[in-house]
Task: structure prediction
Amino acid sequence: MNLELHRALRAARFDDEANRGRRTLFALRCAERVRHLVIDERVLQIMDAAIAALATAPDNVEALAGDAGEMARIASRHPGTNSIDGSGSAAVSATYAVAKAMAGDALAAADYAAYAKVYSYASYMVTHPAAYADEHRWQLALLVQMMTSGSS
Result:
């Protein structure tokens, strides 16, 4: 869990309904960092379409509701993979990052994305907070950039 990011999101009032579009876009940008771990093409299509939609109409999150529901179904039924290296868990977490992003849950999306990233290269490190430091710094920097410039 990225406590610094959690505090910053609260301070920025990203949970307010007025910030739902920005919150969802932030969450999608976090999930996008682990897109290479996603094994379901439909997940990538949904994510790309949502990012494009929010880039042109950031307040139109209602238009994403159907895809958010589909993402929740896809994530809950994710089969993982048969890979001996455990990459299936990273794929599941990356898919959940997109699902949580589509639901507007920025904190969970960022956490799932960071977990997927760490798990994908060093599964034995997932219980070591230091393994998440680089991703947590990136997430916080993105949030600061979005808050100060209003851009995505």
User: Anything to note?
Assistant: The chain has one domain: 3-147. The first helix runs from residue 3 to 11. DSSP finds seven helices and no strands in the chain. The mean pLDDT is 85.
